[in-house]
Write a structure and sequence with these properties.
binds 2-phosphoglycolic acid, about 15% strand, 11 helices, eight-stranded parallel beta barrel, globular, alpha/beta, about 45% helix
């Protein structure tokens, strides 16, 4: 039986005072949840603050990107070992905003994935199609390509130490959620694709749905057999909403 996981993706939002108020409320409201794992992925400068606010709580934390390199002359980049020093459990990799705005290729994402696994971080690998790709009927092709790049580099066994997040690009920040059936269909496809390489890894793989998950649609999405929780953007910045979504997974 897979546990549910709800992860907040703060994106480039946050201020010290706001973060503190948000996390204190979320920490208090999720205190008694036992069946759901919760985490927040925050901007790099706040990792230290989040570490001290969440230490000893049920909420884990992580980053939203990292370099594939261990160290070196890479101005502006952040290494996996640095994330570990701040207690990160997770790192989001290949988010569609990184792929689209910063032109991260499948190969670069696969290198980062490999590097995260080697460092003991749990990568949250984001995959998903654009609206044009969905309309063109190539959703499965796109998701398979993104997934296969990682499997080709790290092997299917690496997915036993990772999380996959299916995030249709057209549903991110748009208020337009995939219907539970639409999401379930792609989640099932992802699990089948992994199962073709390793049935046991596929059965244990945590596959999150992301894209306009809100308190009013979370329970319906999480009830689907292959949806193991959510990657939450906008709603993770509102304490009551994020706690309510965690509660839907509990
Ligand atoms: P959203 O973002 O919940 O605001 O749609 C999800 C994400 O980009 O991870």
């Amino acid at each position: 039986m897979r546990r549910k996981l709800v992860v907040g993706n703060w994106k480039m939002f946050g201020r010290l005072a706001r973060n503190q108020a948000l996390l204190e409320t979320v920490r208090a409201e999720t205190r008694n949840f036992t069946n759901v794992d919760c985490a927040v992925c925050v901007p790099f400068p706040y990792l230290s603050q989040v570490q001290s606010l969440l230490n000893g709580s049920r909420i884990a934390w992580g980053a939203q990107n990292m370099s594939q390199h261990e160290e070196g002359a890479y101005t502006g980049e952040v290494a996996p070992g640095m994330l570990q020093e701040f207690g990160c459990k997770y790192v989001i990799l290949g988010h569609s905003e990184r792929r689209a705005i910063y032109l991260e290729s499948d190969e670069a994402v696969a290198e980062k994935f490999e590097s995260a696994i080697k460092s003991g971080l749990t990568p949250i690998l984001c995959v998903g199609e654009t609206l044009a790709e969905r309309d063109g009927g190539i959703t499965e092709q796109v998701v398979a390509r993104q997934l296969d790049a990682v499997i080709a580099k790290s092997g299917v066994q690496a997915l036993a130490k990772a999380v996959v997040a299916y995030e249709p690009v057209w549903a991110i920040g748009t208020g337009k959620t995939a219907t539970p059936d639409q999401a379930q269909a792609v989640h099932a496809f992802i699990r089948q694709r992994v199962a073709a390489a390793d049935g046991k890894v596929a059965a244990g793989l945590c596959i999150l749905y992301g894209g306009s998950v809100k308190p009013n649609n979370a329970a319906e999405l999480f009830a689907k057999v292959d949806i193991d929780g959510g990657l939450i953007g906008g709603a993770s910045l509102v304490a009551e909403d994020f706690a309510a979504i965690c509660s839907a997974g509990n």
